[in-house]
Amino acid sequence: MFSSRYRLAPLALLMSFAMSAAGGQAAAKPAGKRVPGAKAAAQSDWKSLFNGTSTDAWRGFKMDKLPEGWRIADGTLTKSKPVEDIVSKEEFGNFELEFEWKLGKGGNSGVFYRATEEETKVYWSATEYQLLDDAGHADGKNALTSAASNYGLYAPPRGVVKAADEWNSTRIVVRGTHAEHWLNGQKVVEYDYGSPDWTAKVKASKFNDHPIYGKATKGHVAFQGDHTGVLALRNIRIRALTLKEPQ
Description:
By secondary structure, the protein is an alpha+beta fold.
């Protein structure tokens, strides 16, 4: 028979191990609390531009009210025929924009950012994130004018956009001279305003005849309405960014 000395040893070891583990967990907790309330603060940074019930954040391009043809239906901001473009009442410089969209078969639209109202059309002042049914529209044959492209200048990879009548998610990040296009969780385009590459592409494009194109550092968000096809938008939100990346 073993003595009591050896019968108690395993128990003591187990107690010691449990205490060490508990101490390790207690020590680890502060690391997860280095920025108390960070998640809540990040959520509060977002500003809703359309939440399914109100169009108060929007007006027509060079208009003081929302153009006819834009309407709220089933919690979406939608149009079913060619209508006037709409712009956000507020202007934004450095920002992160998110929204969801879907187009009917053959649909074509776009979202513009840092847009101004100096030109006759919004697309002569602002760069465009193309919204398109790639499979059903002729523009989808050219990667430079396909869905999520920086229209006419920078092409995204193929196969990221969903089919007509399916919801896509878009994220646009603009900070200083740098811009990023995201589609369905994937970064598909990035470019830098004023870079040699950007300048050369603009010079070779139809935008070269418009000297203010892509020059504004602050402007409206705009959605294109003057093409045929059904467009539906939902969960449009935006938040301001600082020039410096957060640490």
